[in-house]
Structures are given as structure tokens and as C-alpha cells.
From TrEMBL, chain A:
It is found in: Cell membrane. This is Amino acid/amide ABC transporter membrane protein 2, HAAT family. InterPro entries: ABC_transp_permease (IPR001851), LivM-like (IPR043428). It comes from Paracoccus solventivorans. Pfam families: BPD_transp_2.
From TrEMBL, chain B:
It is a multi-pass membrane protein. The keyword Lyase does not apply. This is Branched-chain amino acid ABC-type transport system, permease component. One of its GO terms (molecular function) is transmembrane transporter activity.
Length: 309, 298
């Protein structure tokens, strides 16, 4: 999709989010916080899936590392937020650098399998390293800095962080590097003939994706005041892939649509039935079989029709 | 441990019995990947369905040898039938699409099947007893050993040999091997490749379900039983090489021994060790111990 409608969409979305706290509903504010965090997570994976064309099935690992590290630094080491969060994100990026070097050597299914294996490794360590992570019970009781204690101020903090991250990712996608990513996705061999160091670019993409996932994880840990091992499990990685695919991989805003819709549906459907995964599975089947380009395709068609008139 | 031959013997037998149980599941996964080139995330869910179907059949027939046999075969048959419907109705539309869509399709099946199982059987935990003729222990000279675990040790190789015979010595097996090598050519030569694909998916699913039914007497039956088994099955087929039957047999032995023997030294950390092994194999030999290196790696 072309840039302009997407930028307009992002601007409108941002303005709408600015207004949310003034509606006076605590429920709505909390809902928006979660939607923003999941959108950021989906956007981060799309750097890999949509831009570079690598499908990771272990992206949740970095979300979990970001969350657990933030929890640990804030609570055990009593670090201020300004130190704890960047340190957690950098730690996740460092992990991603090591894991990424090894993963980008493989292609397609083997890449997916290796990322899956690494994320299960992270999950296994989280489950078993009880003194640090809390094991099965999760890391509970995170101390939040006083300035973020109220839902209002936490909302502004999340909006600022997610907004800045989104802006960075947007700029990245429009930069030369973003163009190179797409070139790799479209034709790896041709890109390397043009002098692109494909492995290196894939690694950079891998680390960047992990970095933004860790930011999302960090925010989630603070929002939940805890972090749980399930956040690194393979099913969680699957959910992130679903959000991205549901929205559409070949656009910037697609993953935001996907993640938001998925989360809002989950909240709504949970009020009626406990069988939300069933509904999500059916939605996914429908998308895979009927709308593989994602929801964004519907908007694209609509936009094209409006444009013609 | 090595000082006491009895304990060593029991641990070896436990490793074998776990390995053979895992092999039955992994065999179906590797069969499906070998021919259809699809990584089936739903394989664990098929396994779970097998255990639950066997549970229901045993409730009807009562606790008997015949009931157990019917339970295992019924699990395979019913799952096979469902797999046929899913493959013909839905999955077959995705064969010429991207890998990611196929992968997500099987992921969607996991979500749907898991909730359907919860709807039908509830979220509680059940257990299935071993059939009467396999209860108790048998004296193997060095030490007595539970009959049911011994039975699994025997079933694994029998199933392995049966699949091997089918693949290498029958006309149908030859067609399957041809489909694995070059599906377009096979189609051009007049074989109905669609039928072959259905057959493979159904067989793989039935194997998973029978594996689940056979595993039921040695573990709990609950709606979470699929989510780690599928990772174990992945580890096995990765060790052995995606698509290789012999590989998954050896892979199952390796994982079985690692899990049982490793837990003596590593205690609960053994689960981490199995993931480390998966990572190492993928890094050193992504095509696995028995896969082909020259194969296109996607």
C-alpha cells in the first residue's frame, strides 16, 4: 500500500489515542494500553516477516526476555526505570544478536524451526531458573516507579513509547535499509548480486525486530506488574504471527490492524464464551484460505474504489 | 547408577519405552513432511484426540483387552477420517501457496481442535488403565519390569518395520517415495498425486492418534497434553532429518535416552537439554542425521 493513506491512518490513530484518557473510562484506557502493546509486538515481528521475508516462530522469546529483564532490574536491583528499561531492551538485543547470527544462516522452514527451538530454550530456562524468574508461577509483584503508578500516567507513558517506536519503525521502513530489506524479501539472490550483504542485513533486521519486541515485553511486564513463562511459549509466538498475517504482511499498518482486531475480539468474545481460541482458530482458517493478503487487502480495494470515483 | 545393574536395566528399559512411544508420533510427522513438505503443528493435537477417543471407546466397551484394541484402532480410524475431511476440504487448497500459510493453517487446527476437545470432554484430567493382559510386571531375568512399558518397546519396532516394509517393498510405497522426490513428474506419469497426498496426511494423522491412545496408560489425559509432545516430535524429526523414517527412529531413541538418563544427572533441567540438542543439530546439520544435505533447504 502506498505511504500516504497509511500515514493518514497512523496520524488519525494517534489523535484518537490522545483522546482516550479524556473519555474518563478506566476500562477503555486499560484496553487501549494492551492494544498498543500488542500492536507494537506485531509491528516488530513484521520487520522480519513482512519486510525481510523471514518467518520467525520464536519471536515471543524476545518479548519474554524484555519483560523478565525489566521485572528483574526494577524489582530485584531496584534500578530506576530510566536504567532498567533500556538495559532490558539492550539485553534482549544482545541475545538477538547471538541467536540471530546462528538463525539467519538457515532458510524458510529451518529458520522457523531454529527460532522455535531457541524460544523453547528460553521458555525452559524461565520455567526452571526459579530464583531469578519465579519459575512456573511467574515473576510477580514488580515495583513500578511512583510516577507510573496511576493508570493515567502509565497510559501516557505507553503511548509515548509505542508512538516513538512506531515512528522509528516507519522511518526505518522508508529508509534505504528498509528498501534493501524488501529487496531481500523479493529476491535474495538478486539482492546479493547487487552487492547487498544478505546475511548481515537479515541479522540487523532480526536484532531490530527483537529490540522492539523487548520494548513491548517491558511495557507488558509493567502493565501486568508481573511476567509469566507462557509469554515465551511457542503458542505465544504463533499468536504474534497470526496478528501479523491477519492484518497483512505487505504493508506497514497491517499488523496494527491485525493485533488490535484480534485483541478486541478476544476481549469481546470472552464475555460470551470461554472458547475464544476456537474462534481465533476459525478466523485464522478463514484468513489463510480466503484472504491470505490480510485485512489490509480489504482496505486497499476500498481505497482503490474510492480513488476511482 | 552403573554400579547397580538392576537400576541401570530399568532406566534403559524406561528410555526405550519412552522412545518407542515418541517414535510412533514422530513417524507420522516425518511422513507428512517428507511427502507434503508441510510442518504439521497440529500433530500434537491429533495425538491428543487419539487419547480422548480411546478413553471414550473404553467407557463403552468397559475395561477389557478387546476394548483397548478397539480404542487404539478406533482412535486411528476416527482421526484418519477427520484428517481426510480436513485435507480434502481445506488443506489441499494450500499446496501451491507459501509455506507460512500452510504452517499457520496447521496452527489454526491446533486452536480449533484443542477447544473442541475441551467442549466434548471438559477440562478435567483422566487416566486410562493398561489393558488387563498388560497389567503388572514380568520378570526379565535381571529385574521385574511393567508389562505395558515392555509392550511399547515391542510396538515401536513393529510399527517401524511395518512402515519400512510398506515404503520400500510395496507398490504404494514406491509411489510415495516418488511423490517425495518429484511430485510434478509423478503427476505427469499418470498417478493421482492428490490421492497420494490425502493418503499420507490421513496415515500420518492416524499414527499420531494411535500414538496418543497408546501413550494414555502411561500419562494423564488432559487438554494440555499436546503442547509439549509436539515439540518433542519436532526435536525427533529434526535430529533424524525432516522426512527420514530411520532418522525419526534414531531420533526417538536419542531423545528417549536423553530424557530418562539425563534426568538422573540434570534433574528437571533435562527439558532444557533437549532444546539445546535441537538447536545444536539445526546449527551443525540442519538436514539431520539421516536427511540429505543436498536437498533444497526450505
Amino acid at each position: 500500500m502506498t505511504s500516504r493513506p497509511q500515514l493518514i491512518f497512523l496520524a488519525c490513530l494517534f489523535l484518537a489515542l490522545l483522546a482516550v484518557p479524556f473519555l474518563g473510562s478506566r476500562y477503555l484506557t486499560e484496553l487501549a494500553v494492551q492494544v498498543m502493546i500488542f500492536s507494537l509486538l506485531a509491528l516488530s515481528l513484521n520487520i522480519l516477516v513482512g519486510h525481510i521475508g523471514l518467518v520467525s516462530f520464536g519471536h515471543a522469546a524476545f518479548f519474554a526476555i524484555g519483560g523478565y529483564a525489566t521485572a528483574f532490574f526494577l524489582t530485584r536491583w531496584q534500578l530506576p526505570l530510566a536504567a532498567a528499561m533500556p538495559m532490558a531492551v539492550l539485553l534482549a538485543a544482545a541475545f538477538a544478536l547471538v541467536i540471530g547470527v546462528l538463525c539467519v544462516r538457515l532458510k524458510a522452514i529451518y529458520f522457523a524451526m531454529l527460532t522455535l527451538a531457541f524460544s523453547m530454550l528460553v521458555w525452559g530456562i524461565i520455567i526452571k531458573w526459579k530464583p531469578v524468574t519465579g519459575g512456573d508461577d511467574g515473576f510477580v509483584g514488580i515495583t513500578l516507579p511512583g510516577m507510573l503508578a496511576s493508570p493515567q500516567s502509565f497510559y501516557w507513558f505507553v503511548l509515548a513509547v509505542v508512538g516513538a517506536s512506531t515512528a522509528l519503525m516507519w522511518l526505518l521502513s522508508k529508509s534505504t535499509m528498509g528498501q534493501i530489506f524488501v529487496a531481500i524479501r523479493e529476491n535474495e539472490t538478486r539482492a546479493s548480486f547487487l552487492g547487498v550483504n544478505v546475511r548481515q542485513m537479515q541479522l540487523i533486521g532480526f536484532v531490530l525486530a527483537a529490540l522492539f519486541a523487548a520494548i513491548a515485553g517491558s511495557l507488558m511486564a509493567m502493565y501486568l506488574r508481573g511476567m509469566y513463562p507462557q509469554s515465551a511459549f511457542w503458542t505465544q509466538s504463533g499468536h504474534i504471527v497470526i496478528s501479523v498475517l491477519l492484518g497483512g504482511v505487505h504493508s506497514f499498518v497491517g499488523p496494527i490492524l491485525g493485533a488490535s482486531l484480534l485483541y478486541l475480539l478476544e476481549v469481546t468474545i470472552h464475555q460470551y464464551t470461554q472458547y475464544w481460541p476456537l474462534v481465533m482458530g476459525l478466523i485464522l482458517l478463514l484468513v489463510v484460505l480466503v484472504l491470505p493478503e490480510g485485512l489490509i487487502e480489504l482496505f486497499r480495494k476500498l481505497y482503490a474504489r474510492l480513488g476511482r470515483k | 547408577m552403573f554400579a547397580n545393574p538392576m537400576i541401570l536395566f530399568i532406566q534403559v528399559m524406561n528410555s526405550l519405552s519412552l522412545a518407542m512411544n515418541l517414535f510412533i508420533i514422530a513417524a507420522g510427522l516425518t511422513l507428512i513432511f517428507g511427502v507434503l513438505r508441510i510442518v504439521n503443528f497440529a500433530h500434537g493435537a491429533f495425538y491428543m484426540v487419539g487419547a480422548y477417543v480411546a478413553l471414550s471407546i473404553l467407557r463403552v466397551t468397559g475395561d477389557s483387552n478387546l476394548g483397548f484394541l478397539l480404542g487404539v484402532l478406533g482412535a486411528g480410524a476416527l482421526m484418519g477420517a477427520m484428517a481426510f475431511v480436513v485435507e480434502r476440504g481445506l488443506l489441499s487448497r494450500l499446496y501451491d501457496k507459501e509455506h507460512m500459510l500452510q504452517l499457520l493453517f496447521t496452527f489454526a487446527l491446533v486452536l480449533v481442535i484443542k477447544d473442541l476437545v475441551k467442549m466434548i470432554w471438559g477440562s478435567g484430567q483422566y487416566s486410562i488403565g493398561a489393558p488387563p493382559f498388560l497389567r503388572g510386571a514380568v520378570n526379565l531375568g535381571i529385574s521385574p519390569y511393567p508389562k505395558y512399558a515392555l509392550f511399547l518397546c515391542v510396538m515401536g519396532p513393529i510399527i517401524a518395520v511395518a512402515i519400512w516394509f510398506f515404503m520400500e517393498r510395496t507398490r504404494w510405497g514406491r509411489i510415495l517415495r516418488a511423490a517425495r522426490e518429484d511430485r510434478v513428474m509423478l503427476n505427469a506419469l499418470g498417478t493421482d498425486v492428490k490421492l497420494v497426498y490425502s493418503g499420507v496426511f490421513v496415515t500420518g494423522a492416524a499414527l499420531a492418534a494411535m500414538g496418543g491412545a497408546l501413550a494414555a496408560p502411561r500419562s494423564a489425559v488432559d487438554p494440555g497434553m499436546d503442547s509439549l509432545v509436539i515439540i518433542d516430535a519436532f526435536i525427533i524429526v529434526i535430529i533424524g532429518g525432516l522426512g527420514s523414517l530411520l532418522g525419526s527412529f534414531v531420533g526417538a531413541l536419542i531423545l528417549g535416552f536423553l530424557t530418562v538418563m539425563g534426568s538422573i544427572y540434570l534433574k528437571e533441567w533435562v527439558i532444557v537439554a533437549s532444546y539445546v540438542m535441537m538447536v545444536v543439530i539445526l546449527l551443525v546439520r540442519p538436514w539431520g542425521l539421516f536427511g540429505k544435505a543436498d536437498e533444497e533447504r526450505h
